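Suppose a colleague, Dr. K., hands you the sequence of a protein chain of 212 amino acids and asks what its three-dimensional shape might be. Before reaching for any lab equipment, you can write down a predicted structure in token form. Begin with the sequence itself:
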Amino acid sequence: MPTKPIPANQNAGPIPGPGLTDYVGASQRVFRLALSAMARPAHRLDFDFDGLFGPSPPLPPSVAALALTLADHLTPVWLSPSFAAAEPFLAFHASAPIARVPGKAAIVLAASPKELPELLSLNQGDPRYPDRSTTVILGGALEATSMGITFLATGPGLAEETIFSDHGLGMDFARQWELNRASYPLGVDVFLAGDGCLAGLPRSLALIPKPS
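The predicted structure, expressed as tokens, is then:
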């Protein structure tokens, strides 16, 4: 989607940063990727997020691409402290309102597991409309240097028990995820957005810490 240049004057406000170079085509590709990640959970899917932008956006490209694809003027977005500077970016390119409290957000962007709010503090959805719960986009968990516990993943979308590792998620997340899954069909879904990769954790997925 082409954007208008912002005049360089004192009243222009913060510069939002560049958006997707081909908004329609890129968002369609990212949306299909997101569906694939949820349909094949706990699997790392490679994708060239950098190629969707010209200059780098003010968020990690994978996080930015997902946010611009999923957010709109009806989806309040909460940003963790390390992502706070990207508020103008989301407001300008997605028209997304900014939520000041995680529990009021339709989409939560967290820079790392340490900045992730408690999953139970987020919108769990409604029994009539469970799809209205919060969607989490979590960065910093699929990087090459990430260290976390190994999970045995099982549930819809997996033909057999799968080992899920190299994700930076620890026992605190395991505890939260167990409670999140227990409230199914309510609960939140999580995308792990890494450097050139994505993994989906739907609320129906069981993540069992593997004994070392």
